[in-house]
Amino acid sequence: MKKLLESLLEEKAPGPYPSFSVYHLIKTLELIAKTGQVGRGKLAEELKIGEGATRTLIERLKTAHLISVSKKGCSLTEKGKKIWNEFESIFSQKTNLERNELALADCNVAVQIRGGGNRVRTGVEQRDAAIIAGAKGAATLVFKGKKLIMPKISEDVSQDFPIIFRQITALLKLRENDVVVIGSADIWSKAEYGALAAAWTLIENNGA
Q1: CA atoms within 13 A on the CB side of 104
Q2: Of 31, 54, 76, which residue sits at a domain end?
């Protein structure tokens, strides 16, 4: 999955280097999966990218046989559904959060990654990825030994950051070794892309 989606960002001749990211590809698959069919104009509006970039994105997803395109809009192919199901098996939940102790801005989005705890070191890699994606930063938490921990910062989030602990445990069904990354930004789209960018660092290129 990771290799396939990242391959769609490579420069191809003829044509310019794509002005969208892997997170725009993920968001496109999500929008189509949830609605069944999405038009190009709606995609451009939701993705916050231009019409030209949206055309290129659609063409690459179509060439990869992940979507089909008709006058009514874009739909997932069987291959596209398989890739989206694989994505959801790893990134099991995504949710908006209210302001909390770890928030760096008003908009905060959490993404849950199944079984990614062993790939977390200090959380710096996730923070940097979120910033590159346009967020103000990201917080990384790991569920181990029935406790949420924040590497190098907190061995028990329930004690040190009770507000965020209550939010996460109320909204997400955590399993041992799951990771929760929280992207923060001034607008929701950047917070979401920041969280996805942080989460993306926690899967390997050989996929699930």
Answers
A1: 18
A2: 76
Instruction: Say whether both 66 and 10 belong to one domain.
Output: yes
The answer for residues whose C-beta is within 8 angstroms of residue 96's C-beta and 6 or more apart is 107, 108, 109, 110, 188
Q: Are 29 and 49 in contact (CB under 8 A)?
A: no
Q: What is the pLDDT of residues 156-207, one digit of tens each?
A: 999 999 999 999 999 999 999 999 999 999 999 999 999 999 999 998 644 4
Whether 208 is in a domain gets the answer no
H helix intervals, 71-187: 78-90, 124-132, 157-160, 162-171
Number of domains in the chain: 2
Burial class (CB in 10 A: 0-12, 13-18, 19+), 116: buried
* 3-state DSSP helix/strand/coil % of the chain, to nearest 5: 45, 20, 35
Question: 128 and 100 share a domain?
Answer: yes
- Residues 67 and 107 reside in one and the same domain: no
My answer on whether 106 and 192 are in the same domain is yes
Hey, what are 74's tokens?
A: 């874009």
Give pLDDT tens digits for 61-92. Answer: 999 999 999 998 999 999 999 999 999 999 99
Over residues 138-158, mean pLDDT: 96
The pLDDT value given to residue 39: 93
- The alpha carbon dihedral of 162, 122, 111, 104 has a sign of positive
Q: Which domain holds residue 183?
A: 90-200
Neighbours of 194 (CB within 10 A): 34
- Whether residues 190 and 110 share a domain: the answer is yes
